[in-house]
Amino acid sequence: MTFIMTIRSEDKLPFLRRPLHMVYTAIFVAFWAYTGITTPDLLNWVLENSLTLSMVIILAAFYNIFRFTDTSYTLIFLFMLLHVYGSYYQYADNPFGEWMKGQFNFQRNHYDRIVHFGFGLLLSYPLYEIARRGFRLSLFLSSVLVLSLIMSLSAVYEIVEWVVADLVYDGDEQGMAYLGMQGDIWDAQKDLAMALFGGVIAIGLAILLRKQEKPAPANY
Predict the structure, then answer these.
(1) Cα distance from N-terminal residue to C-terminal residue, the chain
(2) What is the DSSP letter of 197?
(3) pLDDT of 164 over the 90 cut
(4) Are 145 and 156 in contact (CB under 8 A)?
(5) Nearest to 41 by CA among 78, 93, 114
(6) Taking the CB of residue 175, how many other CB atoms lie within 10 A of it?
């Protein structure tokens, strides 16, 4: 499988000539810094944002190697805000989740489920772009690969969460709160299902809304 860089006119523009990207970056950095400074639980914020920082580094490193469409950058931006807001508090105590709990008589705070659903819904299309434009895979293979990645990455995240909770919190009640289980022994499985559900919706929409594609010339 060979990665093929697709050159489009907007790919050639440097970051400082992409106003939308600069606005997204400024908003994210400001919001990220605000949550870090004002969070009531700094240790939880640091642990939750270690993966966020990794994602920012990857996006920056590959910015001039593979440029996503503005649609994908918008989806990535929305997911990162969703996740950073979740890291502001422990997921089990998130205010929006508490509001939903009271408003709809839920038995638990569902904000973590929203983020897992958002992971599949908002990040599937950027992965789909990599498969279609970067690796030139067929529609079927791209869809299967993206959904497989969503499930795999979700499973890896659940494992990392477990390891962190066990090492940092020594498996105590605070560790359970960090995991956001809220007494549900099937929490990890339901989180995976939500991510898959979001991914299926995103890929379904991408297939339904896609325009007739013309192969772009390869850059060697």
Answers:
(1) 15
(2) H
(3) no
(4) no
(5) 93
(6) 18
Band the pLDDT of 83: cuts 50, 70, 90. very high
The DSSP line for 83-110 is: HHHHHHS-GGG-HHHHHHHHHTT-SS--
What gap in Å lies between CA 216 and CA 1, rounded to an integer? 18
Q: What is the pLDDT of residues 57-75, one digit of tens each?
A: 999 999 988 999 999 999 9
CA 203 to chain centroid: 15
Spatial distance between the Cα atoms of 88 and 81, rounded to a whole number of angstroms: 11
Distance CA 217, CA 65 (A): 16
The one-letter amino acid code at 106 reads F
Q: What pLDDT is stored for residue 187 in this prediction?
A: 81
Q: 41-49 — which CB contacts under 8 Å span 24+ positions? A: 41/89, 41/90, 43/168, 44/87, 44/89, 44/90, 44/178, 45/87, 45/88, 47/164, 47/168, 47/178, 48/83, 48/86, 48/87, 49/84, 49/87
* Residue 155 vs residues 51, 84, 176: alpha-carbon distances, Å: 14, 20, 18
Could you tell me where the DSSP H helices lie in 111-138? 111-129
Alpha carbon distance 13, 202 (integer Å):
28
Cα(88)–Cα(94) distance, integer angstroms: 8
Render pLDDT for 170-203 as a digit per residue (tens, 0 to 9). 766 666 666 666 767 788 899 999 999 999 999 9
Residue entry with tokens 């896609």: 210
